[in-house]
Amino acid sequence: MSNITFDAEGKTKTAKEDIEWLRIWCEETNETKLPRVALIGDSITEGYFRLVQKALQGIALVDYLATSYSINSAIYNTMVKSFADDSAYAVVHFNYGLHGYNVDEKTYEARCKALLEYISQKAKTIVATSTTVLENDLKTESAHWLEKVRLRNESLVKIATESALTVDDLNALSQGLLGENRMPDGVHFSEKGYIALAESVVKSIQKVL
To answer: How large is the angle between the packed helices 146-163 and 105-120, nearest 10 degrees?
Structure first.
C-alpha cells in the first residue's frame, strides 16, 4: 500500500504537495490472449489493485497508474494520456479526486472532462466517485474535505452522464466503511475496506468488459 502522502491539510497556496509520487505497474505486457484493464487513480487505487487483479485472473490483465500529482499539472495529463496510449486497453477505471486540493471546482471539472474524453476514445471508461475522508474518530466525514468531495463527485457524475460513461459509486460505498474498515488517517482503508472497494471495482469492470 502507498505511503500516506495525502494533502490532509489542503495547502491551497502551494501548487504541489510536499511529497509528489508516481507508480506504474504492468505485468505480462506481451500477453494478448486476454483483454487488458487499466486502473488510474491514487493511493486508494493502489490499495485495491492487487485484489482487483486477483479477482479478474483468467478474465483480464490488470495494470495500474497511481499518483499524487494534481490534475491541473502538465505532468499528470501527459503521463495519464501516455499510459492510456501505451497498451490496447479494453477498459479504463478512473478514480481521481483526493489530491490537488488547491484546484478549483471549475478547473477540476474541465480537466476531468477533457481527460475522460481522450481516454474514452480508446477504451470503455468507468468513472469512480471519490471516497469519503473521515475525521480521527473514523466515523465522521471530514469538515475540511466534505464539500470538496461532494462537488467533485457531482462534476464526475455530470461528465459521465453527458458522455454515457459508467459510474462506479465508490463514494456511496465508502460512507458505510467506517471504523475497522479504515486506517487511522481517515483517508485510506484497512484490508477489509479495500476488499469491499475492490468488489465494486470488479463488478463495474465486468459490466462493461
So the answer is: 40
pLDDT digits (tens, 9 = 90+) for 134-190: 999 999 999 999 999 999 999 999 999 999 999 999 999 999 999 999 999 999 999
Q: Is the pLDDT of residue 4 over 50?
A: no
Cα 91 to Cα 59, 119, 125, 198, 202, distances in angstroms: 12, 10, 6, 15, 11
Ramachandran assignment for 50, one of left (phi > 0), alpha (psi -120 to 50 degrees), beta (any other) = alpha
Q: Which residue has the cell 468488459?
A: 209
Residues 176 and 132: their CA atoms lie apart, in Å, by 10
Strand bridging mode 36-41 / 22-25: unpaired
User: Nine-digit cell at 127?
Assistant: 468513472
Total-model pTM? 0.93
DSSP 87-137: S-EEEEEE---SS-TTS-HHHHHHHHHHHHHHHHTTSEEEEEPPPP-B-TT
Roughly what angle, to the nearest 10 degrees, separates helices 105-120 and 74-86? 20
DSSP 148-187: HHHHHHHHHHHHHHHHT-EEE-HHHHHTT--GGGB-TTSS
**185 — phi, psi (to 5°)?**
-75, -10
Q: In whole angstroms, what is the distance from residue 68 CA to residue 146 CA?
A: 19
pLDDT, tens digit, for every residue of 87-144?
999 999 999 999 999 999 999 999 999 999 999 999 999 999 999 999 999 999 999 9
